[in-house]
Structure formats: C-alpha cells, structure tokens
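**Backbone geometry record:**
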Amino acid sequence: MQLSTRHLLGIRDLEPQDVQKILDTAQQFKEVLQRPIKKVPSLRDITIVNLFYENSTRTRISFELAEKRLSADTINFTASGSSVSKGETLLDTVNNILSMKVDMVVMRHSATGAPHFLSKRVPAVIVNAGDGINEHPTQALLDAFTIREKLGTLEGARVAIIGDIMHSRVALSNIYLMRKMGAEVMLSGPPTLIPRHIEEAFNVRVEYDIDKALAWCDVANVLRIQLERQNQVLFSTLREYSQAYGINRRRLDKVGRPIHVMHPGPINRGVELDSDVADSGHSLILGQVENGVAVRMAVLYLLSGKS
C-alpha cells in the first residue's frame, strides 16, 4: 500500500494510482479527525523536521497538526534566527539535523528545485511543501480531495484556475493533478500573468474573459496576486485588477447556476476575491483548510513505509 515514489517532490512524479491512494487514505484519516480522540499511533517512532525557509501559516500549521495527529516526533525549523543567517548552507543545515536521526523532512524553500537537490544527497524522505514557483504538491492534493468530496469525482470536472498563473506553484501542481485525473482545466487572468504557449504545453484552455471562464466551470480555484514574486509591473493597479478579474457576488449571480469557489490562501480580500463570496455558501475555502490536515496525514503515512 505504498506509493510508487520514495519522496513527494511534485505531482509530476506521481502516477494516477498514487493520487487515488493518497485521496482514499485521506478519506480514512478525515473520519479519524471527526472522532473525540483525533490521534492515532501510526508514526509513533518516526521523527519529522519541518524545514521552512519561507514564511508560512496554513501549510506549516497543517503539517505540524498532521504529524501530531499521527503521533510523530516533530522538530520545527525556521531560517530566521537559525545558523542560516550566519551563512550556513542548505546541505550543512540538513545534514546537521539528520545527524540527530531524523526520518522525514518537510521542506519549503524559495529556490526552485531545493527539495529535489536534497533528495539526491540525504537519506531522509523529502516532502515538498512548496519550492519557488515550481510546485506545491500537497496543496493540489487537498484541492483535489475537496473537489472530489463535493462533486463525487474528478473525472470530467471543469476546473477554472484564475489569477496569477505565472508565479503560482499551486497553479502548476493543480494543472498536473487535474489533467492526470481526467478533469478539464481552463486558465483565466490577465494575459501578462498567463505564460505564453501554456495551452499546448499542458493541454489546457485559456480564457481571458473571466465571466466566460466562470460560466464554463464547476469549480473556480482563485489564486492570490503574488506581488512579492513579480519583478516588473504586469498590470496597472490592484483596483483595476479587481474590477476586471476579481470574483464578486455580482459575477457569480450572472452565471445563473451554483459553482464552487476555492482559494489556497492567504486571500487578498477585495482584490481577487470579495468577502461576500469568500464567506458565502459558494466557498469551499475552510473545507480546504480542514481537508489539508487529512491529506498531509495520508502523504506522511504512505511515505513513512509504515503502511
């Protein structure tokens, strides 16, 4: 009952049966999380280090909670206040931690490929919690779990990914996963935020008219505008972006049928998503957060070799 890969570096490396196994296992763990006692001894003798070189709230807390629910021993590392600020290299940092007999490393890093680099040089299992603008596999898995929970299947689901596609690791992992599992994918946003030739490269549709994208989809996965990753001006103002591409109640009412709205967080309220949508019955956002713990429990359990 193990996965076909030793590490979780990206969705690109998973087989469809791996995705299915993770989602099915997450369903079992979600049932555990509904019990009065939410803890299981599955990883009781496993030590996991959370190695976060970038700021994170949801992902880090979600992994920490998943590890505690599985009874793993955890170590939390943040770059600020560590020897990294004194010039210590990534490999030295990890080797020092591994010398303390760590079994798994959950890693977020601003450099694309950092988890892949480590996976070739250290004996521990590596779980990618986001690397640069490359991938964020557990976010895509929890998104898929949430969609499957709501629609019953991913096969044939129409998923619109809306916003800053160019700088989003969530977008890339979602494209890989949705296409792998038989969903249809449409990308929507300003032309300056959607990479050229992405249609042919990933077998997805591109629609620059946000209202047409909403009319087409079953699920709108709305992405944050990542100003911190943009090194040039790619649209005029946040106000104009909101008017042209922000999801609000008026836009959803025009669709004439219910669609589900998702967001990986943090939300820029009033920019890509208005509060009257984020806090409405259309929103699956809090469900994503809840499902994230179950999905990350499943990933850690299946990669641990305990299954």
